[in-house]
Fold this protein.
Amino acid sequence: MKLLINKVKRGIQKLQLFSQVSRLNKEIATEVIPDQSEKPVVFFNASARLEGLNLNGAFNLISSWGIQLSGRDVYHFACRSGMSQCVLGVGLGDPTDPPPCQGCMQYTRLFTAAAKTAWFDYSEDSKLRKLIQGKPVAELINIEYKGRPLGELVLTSTRWILRR
């Protein structure tokens, strides 16, 4: 019974937080007039929003609000099922499971509502897939594609997933 009560309390707290965030987003979006002579600031929160607002997401949200309140335009880049696999959405499950996009996108819409949001979608690059398919991690580290060191760029994420 105590577990149920705690779960209900957490649910109520989450709803109160979301209500406050939504209200603040509306206030900021309607009351702030960006200075068009200033360049916009772009945010990309590389943190999954699976359970609501985590610490990284909170810093991102507060920082973007602060920038907007200072009179700058803010743009969020946000994932809309933009990856075939998501390091952030794996949690402790199987890395081959599909990412939990719907919940993440729901929270992203809530947390970026005060500013413009550019969503990116998944688009497979068949040449890249052919280049990496079947290679062991040791070989993938050295992969370069279109002049970019993709292997080095994803190494940290790969280690994160394989840490178990």
Remarks:
- The first strand starts at residue 41 and ends at 44.
- The CA atoms of residues 44 and 77 lie 5 Å apart.
